[in-house]
Amino acid sequence: MKFKIRWILGFVSILAFAVAGPVAELGQVEGRVLLRVSGVKTLEPVAMGRLLALDETLITGDASRFEVRPVMGGGLWRVGRRAVFSLKEGGARLLAGTALVQVPAGALWRVESARSVVALPEGTWLVQAVDNRGLKIVCLDGANPVEARGLPSVETGAVVAIVKVNPGELVFLQPGGEEFSPRVVIYLEELLATSRLIGGFPKPVPGMRRLMNQAIAQRERLKGVSNAVVVGASKAGGFQIAVPTPEAPVAP
């Protein structure tokens, strides 16, 4: 009976994958990563090279992370520890954890949390699902504005707010997906040096030289500024911030 149940679940998984079709391939995998197919309760371990369909959920533990590479159009997702991640049409859903997102030229990728949606333009970004069900967004490299798209349940996804986030700046998208926080300046060099999503894989993140150039340029701009916010990787695999006191001006 147990064998029959496993066979049926496996057949359902294969059938769902065949109908949906692959949209991405699992790249580098560090540690144990589990996958849940849409409509199936069981979890299965996955390895590099596994093809992924929309709505399949990838889950990481305390010491695991993975890459996802779309089969068409380029770009990259790197997802860290303690994450719950699934590919969606035009982007992904991130219910927990942190993702590095490299959006290819001319594209706009959506990232959903439980209660907010952000649209990221071409560039390299860090996005973290925060406890209030909003999103924390750091620009590593990018030139175009970030868009707030309201709640995940709103199918139209109309733009309700925009903000220009420069390399080395952070914003929060509040729950509801309609309002951004003020921008906060961070030390990009420290973030690049400490983030496991950047340095925790056998191969470097694509475009690393450009990211380092952005960090060097920021360092030059911030010379003599003593109250910039410092950001580094946290033990939980995300990133932390220290907000200046209200009377201390933030670097522009």
Q: Give the helices and strands as they follow along the chain.
A: HEEEEEEEEEEEEEEEEEEHHHEE
Question: Which strands sit side by side, in order, in the main sheet?
Answer: 4-1-6-7-10-13-14-17-18
Poorly predicted spans: 1-19, 231-237, 242-252
Fraction of residues in helices?
10-25%
The tally of domains stands at 1
The counted number of beta strands is 20
What does this structure look like?
The protein is an alpha+beta fold and 252 residues long. It has helices spanning 2-20, 188-194, 196-199, 208-221; strands at 24-30, 33-36, 44-45, 51-52, 57-60, 65-70, 76-79, 84-88, 91-96, 98-103, 109-112, 117-120, 123-129, 135-142, 146-148, 161-163, 169-173, 184-185, 232-233, 239-240. The chain has one domain: Jelly Rolls (Sandwich), CATH 2.60.120.1440. The protein has a nine-stranded antiparallel sheet with strand order 4-1-6-7-10-13-14-17-18, with helices on one face. The protein has a nine-stranded mixed sheet with strand order 3-2-5-8-9-11-12-15-16, with no helix packed on it. Strands 19-20 form a two-stranded antiparallel ribbon. The longest helix is centred in the first third of the chain and has 19 residues, at 2-20. Residues 1-19, 231-237 and 242-252 have low confidence and may be disordered.
Fold topology:
Blueprint lengths: L1 H19 L3 E7 L2 E4 L7 E2 L5 E2 L4 E4 L4 E6 L5 E4 L4 E5 L2 E6 L1 E6 L5 E4 L4 E4 L2 E7 L5 E8 L3 E3 L12 E3 L5 E5 L10 E2 L2 H7 L1 H4 L8 H14 L10 E2 L5 E2 L12
Parallel strand pairs: 9-11
Antiparallel strand pairs: 1-4, 1-6, 2-3, 2-5, 5-8, 6-7, 7-10, 8-9, 10-13, 11-12, 12-15, 13-14, 14-17, 15-16, 17-18, 19-20
